[in-house]
Design brief:
Pathway: Cofactor biosynthesis; coenzyme A biosynthesis; CoA from (R)-pantothenate: step 1/5
Radius of gyration: 20 Å
Structural class: alpha/beta
CATH topology: Rossmann fold
CATH superfamily: P-loop containing nucleotide triphosphate hydrolases
Number of domains: 1
Strand content: 15-25%
Distance between the termini: 24 Å
GO cellular component, one term: cytoplasm
Strand order of the largest sheet: 1-9-8-7-2-6-3
Binding site for ATP: 104-111
Oligomer: single chain
Number of strands: 9
Order of helices and strands: HEHHHEHEHHEEEEHHEE
Enzyme class: transferase
Shape: globular
Domain Phosphoribulokinase/uridine kinase: 99-243
Bound molecules: adenosine-5'-diphosphate, the ligand CC(C)(COP(=O)(O)O)[C@@H](O)C(=O)NCCC(=O)O
């Protein structure tokens, strides 16, 4: 049987060079931005810097700008298909938001990727309204996770209310005027019952989360339901060597320790007073107990389901792109 990593590689034994993906090196990809007008001004760039603290602006210009152009082409393609379908049906059904899924490990840079894409996509014609929803809002509240014995399984597929998440995206793709999602606080490490995210027919909705490319679940009668990705118009898997992601996780934990964790309301406040060595050991413990097994068992196996795989090197820089052939 062909393994998932073999599917991604044209160099796999017996593949005869066939793979469903076109592979581009970073250099080839960056060249695609030569003819693109930079849609960001100085203020936008300052704003982007604020969100992705270490984000390199050359990276934005060389990697994310061409990617936003590609996504803009897919949005236009979907629009044309929608018009053709309306003509065929002799009925002008309203267009639904273009939904992009962004998947990958904890700490690989999904949020940063999603935020940069939101800023860039907003500046392309036809997609001024871009919304972003993270799947952590669909985690069960801590009390429910405790009841199910899942507090040490946060981020694993079973820690989410998957039915609610599926309903949310399905309603967005059904053209509902207003769809609501619950909101998760990284500060209190729990769902905040009085807050929610309201999505009102944006041009583009980015859905970002660990498990957004998970396959459909098996029903009790053995048949398969729908997967979240059945509602995606495009999907991106942010990939990197596991050892690098572990390092980024620990680095982010250390940074939060001297920032957010010092807030007495923070769930991790108890870590604020740890020595550097103790804090690094705590972060490594959480990584090894929860995030790494989840990455290995549930997240990496979904990589081959993405339309685009962005592969990072040890410095967060994208090294190569695998784009599914159309
Ligand atoms: N493209 C990038 N360049 C530099 N640093 C990045 C980049 N993407 C993410 N980071 C850093 O890596 C860490 C994890 O990124 P984040 O977007 O929070 O990951 P995730 O949402 O996957 O958990 C953060 O400290 C972030 O600042
Ligand atoms: C909240 C998360 C499960 C990520 O959720 P996502 O938005 O990717 O669905 C993750 O960031 C997390 O908190 N994991 C638990 C282990 C830890 O504290 O790192």
């Amino acid at each position: 049987m062909t393994s998932e990593s073999e599917l991604l590689s044209s160099r796999a034994p017996g593949s005869q060079g066939f793979t469903p993906f076109v592979e581009l090196s970073r250099e080839d990809w960056a060249r695609l931005s030569n003819d693109l007008e930079q849609p960001l001004d100085a203020a936008d760039i300052a704003h982007l810097r604020g969100t992705g603290d270490r984000l390199d602006l050359r990276e934005v210009a060389e990697v994310y700008l061409p990617l936003s152009r590609l996504l803009n082409l897919y949005v236009s393609g979907a629009e044309q298909l929608h018009r053709a379908t309306s003509t065929f049906l002799k009925d002008d059904v309203e267009r639904t938001p273009f939904v992009i899924g962004v998947a990958g490990s904890v700490a690989v840079g999904k949020s940063t990727t999603a935020r940069v894409l939101r800023e860039l996509l907003r500046r392309w014609p036809g997609t001024p309204n871009v919304e972003l929803v993270t799947t952590d809002g669909f985690l069960y509240p801590n009390a429910e996770l405790e009841r199910r014995g899942l507090m040490q399984r946060k981020g694993f597929p079973e820690s989410y209310d998957r039915r609610r998440l599926l309903r949310f995206v399905s309603e967005v793709k059904s053209g509902a005027d207003e769809v609501r999602a619950p909101w998760y606080s990284h500060l209190t490490y729990d769902i905040v019952p009085e807050r929610e995210v309201i999505v009102r027919r944006p041009d583009v909705l980015i859905v970002e989360g660990l498990n957004v490319l998970a396959p459909a679940r098996l029903r009790s009668d053995g048949t398969q339901g729908l997967a979240l990705s059945d509602f995606f118009d495009f999907s991106i898997y942010v990939d990197a060597p596991t050892a690098s992601i572990e390092r980024w996780y620990i680095e982010r934990f250390m940074k939060l320790r001297s920032g957010a964790f010092s807030d007495p309301d923070s769930y991790f406040h108890r870590y604020a007073t740890l020595s550097d060595e103790e804090a690094a050991a705590t972060a490594k413990g959480i990584w090894t107990r929860i995030n790494e097994p989840n990455l290995r068992e549930n997240v990496i196996p979904t990589r081959g389901r993405a339309k685009l795989v962005l592969s990072k090197g040890p410095d967060h820089g994208i090294r190569r792109m695998l784009l599914r052939k159309t």
